[in-house]
Amino acid sequence: MKKIAATALLLGAGCIFGSAASAHVVLEYQVAPAGASYKASFKVGHGCGASPTRQVVVDIPAGMRGARPMPKAGWTLDVQRDKLAQPYTSHGRSVTEDVVRITWTARTPDDMLASAHYDEFVLVAQAPEQAGTVYWPVRQVCVEGRNDWVEVPQAGQKLSDLKSPAAALEILPTGGAAAHNH
Description:
Blueprint: H1 2-22, E1 26-27, E2 31-33, E3 37-44, E4 53-59, E5 65-69, E6 75-90, E7 93-106, E8 119-126, E9 132-136, E10 138-142, E11 146-149, E12 167-172
Parallel strand pairs: 2-12
Antiparallel strand pairs: 1-3, 3-8, 4-7, 4-10, 5-8, 6-7, 9-12, 10-11
């Protein structure tokens, strides 16, 4: 667990210093233990040029389960669910559909995220049981224009090589039986 915490601290520090220059939507914490509950805080640091952000759309990666968004004052929530190709069991019941997309939309122009300001859009979900990287496509819709942070690196390519990278989350092995944390 100390190794996971140290890795999270180092990656988090890199995110703090690296994200300001790249100016794309990133996760506050970019590592999580396999099978654990994960709080995804999407950091939005600008609009589309000078245009304010009026909507943020997050696609839930395959393997992330039970996503639940945090409401934001002044913003409506839309939670899209879909049938699962492979149902799973949670708390003794079969789950046949799950959340695939969460959308926050500003209620009024005064509620929109001005380009000169910063905000976070938050959800919780259970991380996959398998270690690896999952990518969260995020669409940032502005009054004028949009930023689609949806690119995923191909073999041999780094996330930093992409113009509009999806937010990345590294799922770390647990070293034993995966814990189901709430």
